[in-house]
## 1
Amino acid sequence: MNKSELITSLSEETTFSKKDVSRVLDAFTRIVERTLKKGQKVSITGFGAFWISRRPARKGINPATKERIDLPEVNVPRFKAGKNLREVVRSVKIG
């Protein structure tokens, strides 16, 4: 599901206009980004949590040249599914 499909589904489920749903979804994204930028965690009970994790500097290999390179320390966004989401996903049959 892409963003426009999500907006359509939310609009149908809530009876809010697509324009209003789009504004709320964009605001949610901005708030999560701003909160993570401050180094804080965003938790949605039952759904999951977003936070920043620091990946330490490490050695890597350039796949094109096979040359060894030094990869710098970086911050990466992380997400852990909450209990309710994990239970829903466990019951899904794939394939």
## 2
Amino acid sequence: MKRQVAVIGLGRFGASAAQQLERLGFSVLAIDESRDAVEAIKEKVTVAVIADGTNPAELEAAGIKSCEIVVLAIGSEIEHSILAAMVLKELGIKRLVAKASTEFHGRLLKRVGVDEVVFPEHDMAIRLANRLGVHSLRDFLEEAPDYEIVESAVPVDAIGSTLKTLDYRHRYGVNVVGIRRGPQVRIDMTSDEPFQAGDLLLILGTVQALRRFTEEQNVHQPVGKASSGGA
């Protein structure tokens, strides 16, 4: 059975996220107040519904409670975004990822219980700078569009273990190419160095392999990728 995810707000960011999630094998519920936005995407996702993202009755009727992940892609109107986030948490959404337009907006979203905040413009700027600065990796990813590099939280049961003992390359077909520990990103980590709580792994692999890794290890990755081909 496909995992169910909802995307609320079908602007450029929300529509792109909904379509990519559908391509990755999720069952996507796309929601927007605009009939035009819903009509434009209805053939590209599992279900598309006209509904008010701040109205709990309309969200329940659309099937929001069956979704284990909700992406709140309302970013331009802060008050509307915050209210929608509060409604979604009250409805018991397990994992809520929300788009923020500013750092202040992001802090407010966190205060009302949003699990992960995304800053699309900032993240894309960092991603572009990183890609321009790492030519060989950029060229490799552009020539191999099925590959991505993502950041993933270190699995809880991997804390204290090493790359050698975990053997992710053999088990999942992915490669840990770096680690983010606090403000620093390291690419010189040895196979015998143990992971610490709070570490973020920079992992290279196919989209399918990365998804299998995150699902089986019960970890999640930020919506923004560390790097990508064709962006």
## 3
Amino acid sequence: MKHSDYSLIPTFVAIFEEKNFTKAAKRLGITQSAVSQSVNRLRVIFEDTLFIRGSHGITPTPLAIDVYPTLASSVESIAYMLPVHKNFIPAECERRFGISALSVFGFTLLPELSTLMSSEAPLASVKIEPLLGRDMTNELRAQQCDLVIEVMTNQRSNLRSKVIMQDSLQLLCRTDHPRLTGDSITIDEFLNEKHVTHSQFDKNDAYLIGRGLQGEGILGQRNVAWQASSIMEMLPVIMRTDYIGLLPKTAVAQYTQIHNLKPLETPFLTDPIEVAMFWHSSRTNDPSHRWFRGLCAKAASLYTR
């Protein structure tokens, strides 16, 4: 690529993110004809079609998807050097931030975040959306979402991440369970009982399967009788049946009495659970995004303090 071709990079990024030539032209303040000419030059440079027109907008080719993070990061790095971005003031921020998270964080981490947001950035807003069953890598890349908050996993190796809190698993049963009368449970008892799990609607396995936990072999042998769409939906089911279920320990302490449940020690499941936030590399240097990540980490530390 010649030096004179570097001016085409913002056009590439705008088309990729807008998925529409007209919207990209409007965003850049140029004509659609100029955008089309830039695309033709980019296709020659990369020796690839890059963008394919369809009935539902523009679809990037695999090569375009591969080079987008680097090009987007370069455009944003330059933009963030300008004074308007350097002088980021949370109290004046009117941006809406998007988080995709497991439902359990709506009862733990996210309320802490709401308190901090209302104090430090009263003009900003946050939209929380469910995590399961969505292609979060593409949504983060296209800036349709700012952060994903879930259990740390190597399944998102193409994203940036930071561990913000640590938790552990807690097994629950109803207080008058006919067989589990003690304070702990053995592996045989664990496998002989029926379980309630938190499952992804587009997958048959429970959420914890495939997360790299040392106890995954045991978890995979559970007799699953009920698959709930969220962690908090598991509590009333456990209370009304003989089913048992594993939940995050920090989340269940305040609900055991409400739902007439008791915790059981599981000496065979001692893995710590790390909770992380994930984001796309192109947002790393964005001052508002960096501030928001710091606020999420602060909320996590306050909740677990």
## 4
Amino acid sequence: MYICIFVKMDQIHIYTDGACTGNPGVGGYGIVMEWVGKPYKKEFSEGYQLTTNNRMELLAVIKALEKIKVSGLQITVFSDSKYVVDAVNQDWISGWKKRYFAKVKNPDLWRRFITLYDRFHPKMVWIKGHNGHPQNERCDQLAVAASQQKKLLPDAGYQPDSDGLF
């Protein structure tokens, strides 16, 4: 006789978006976090003086995962950034780690992300941006509003390319 026991894990859905006016330029990120099946929802955003869109997309995911204080949750991250989602789902990260992030943009953020990814193992899901998805649209609003604040944070890890173009 076999006995199957199903354990329902708490689920967290994280929606993220980044925005940048100019690339590089002023930027921001927006996050919506929802505890599935519970009336629990939080929103977060921050704006930065000089950054890139890819940095804001990745930083949004990092900041969201850093907010999680308990383990054992089933986490799904929804992002409209192919850069972030494909890096995980197509396992680009493994190659980057083997090469010690040589010739990889934003290595400071990818190192932070990998630590969090290894801790939480979130599922990464790409969603089409600016397509009417309510949480993604809200994240975009938060990111844009954050980038337009008067007091913007410095993006300490931002390094323009050596050719000076970005």
